[in-house]
Amino acid sequence: MLLSVAVGCRKDKDQEPPSITILAPAAGAQLQVPGEITVRAAVQDDRQVEQVRFAVLDPQGIPVATAPSVTVNAAAAEVERSLSITDEALSSGTYSIQVSAGDGSNESRAYRSLGVVEAPLRLRAVHVVCAVGGQAQVLRIDSAGSAAPFVTLAQDVRHAVLSSRARTLVIAGDVSGPVTALDAELGSVRWQLPNTNALGGTFFTGLDRVDADRLVVARANGLLSAHAAHNGSGYFTASALDGRYPRRHAVLGGRLLSEQPLVAGSGRRLAVYTAYTGELLAEHPLDLVLAGFAALDEDRVLLFGERDGDGVVQELNVELGGGWEPQVLAGQPVGCMAAGPGQVAYLGTPSGLLRYAYPGNTVVTLVGGGAVTAVARDAASGAVLIAVPGQVQRVDAGTGAVLQSWPVSGTVVAVLPFFNREP
User: Fold this and answer.
1) Domain 19-117 CATH assignment equals 3.30.450.40
2) Phi-psi category of residue 152: left, alpha or beta, with phi > 0 → left and psi -120 to 50 → alpha
3) Secondary-structure breakdown of the chain: helix, strand, coil percentages, each rounded to the nearest 5
4) CA 6 from centroid of its chain's CA atoms
């Protein structure tokens, strides 16, 4: 009897990933945006390394710079790539260099921290949003001071905000218009929220940018919702207190503050929600029609607004509920405001522009003689931008001198500086 035995060869499964040693840059390296950094690494494998990839990740682990992969096909090698970080919207912080190496079956990664220094702040443009004959018109003033029409939307407009990080200009309608988000560079529509008004009055009662990436939309039906500025995706939807509607919002120390007037009547409350889930935490009495907020610290906030025809500045401890009233501006109701550094705020009133300084509790008239209906601060130059009848003006924050002016049509809804990154 003949016994036949077949003997075959079986290749052992590769279970060992390549090893990686980052040789450059040295630990503690820093990069100023925009800039380039060269990354060099030594890779080794018990068989062979096929490819090596390089990237820089932001603090959330999202790639902000990549380079073409390097084909190695050897057991050991030193490889390098230059990575360019050009996005001036990036903030300063600790980022990570990531080097990945694969042998066809396994992959390994190595990391090195990289200090990224944000780009110098630059004003790219100022967007002036106006209501003109039932349309929303946006005038763009470039960094050299030249003004030109930017976009016209066939909708009414009541509110507008801008996120420099997301490069998005968001306009909210009034009775019939939707919330429309535009590319702040191109003017093209990015996303919209419909206006489902069935009552014929104001529908969108508020639109506020609460941080660099998020905004809050308020509705007359009592709903408030948080959205990503760049694509409109929703974070949460919350309800106002019974019998009230949300109007003006800000975030302080992880809490969302919401001014909420009565639907029928003149009473107001300040509702406090969690900033990221919309869970109701507390409510406080409020006797102001709010123009805006300015944070003092994680628990204290300044409230600016109007009460019985007077301008009022109040300090509120959001955690404890107590506070005091540093200023009452007789006959000068505050209708708009912009916060500045050093606990300073610029206040628009029917009689002009005021500068309020909390440390000394002082008020100075910067611009007099007429109503200021919108105010913003150019954080790059320190100048203040205001809307007065028929004009937008750039004024010196110290003296109130008018540095430049531009004619505008219709009613100015908002004056919105657009920077290369968030101030």
Assistant:
1) no
2) beta
3) 0, 60, 40
4) 70
Query: How many other C-beta atoms lie within 10 A of the C-beta of residue 211?
Result: 14
pTM (predicted TM-score)? 0.89
d(CA 226, CA 371): 32
The Cα–Cα gap between 106 and 364 comes to 68
The number of angstroms, rounded, from the C-alpha of 193 to the middle of its chain's C-alpha atoms is: 18
Distances (CA, A) of 322 to 177, 301, 306, 316: 39, 11, 19, 6
The closest of 111, 56, 59, 113 to 86, measured between CA atoms, is 56
Tell me the C-alpha distance between 188 and 184, whole Å: 8
Between the two ends of the chain, the Cα-to-Cα distance in Å is 90
d(CA 50, CA 11): 18
**Secondary structure class of 370 (helix, strand, coil):** coil
Find out whether 187 and 175 touch, Cβ atoms under 8 Å: no
In this structure, which long-range contacts are made by residues 277-281, counting pairs with CB atoms below 8 Å and at least 24 apart in sequence? 277/236, 278/224, 278/226, 278/235, 278/236, 278/237, 278/238, 279/238, 280/238, 281/255
Asked if residues 174 and 204 have their Cβ atoms less than 8 Å apart, the reply is: yes
Q: How many CB atoms lie within 10 A of CB 266?
A: 8
The domain segmentation of the chain, as residue ranges, is 19-117
Place of tokens 């290749």: 11
Structure tokens given for 111: 């990391």
**Model pLDDT for residues 201-244, shown as the tens digit of each residue:** 999 999 999 999 999 999 999 999 999 999 999 999 999 999 99
User: Could you tell me which of 93, 29, 25, 102 has the C-alpha nearest to residue 57?
Assistant: 93
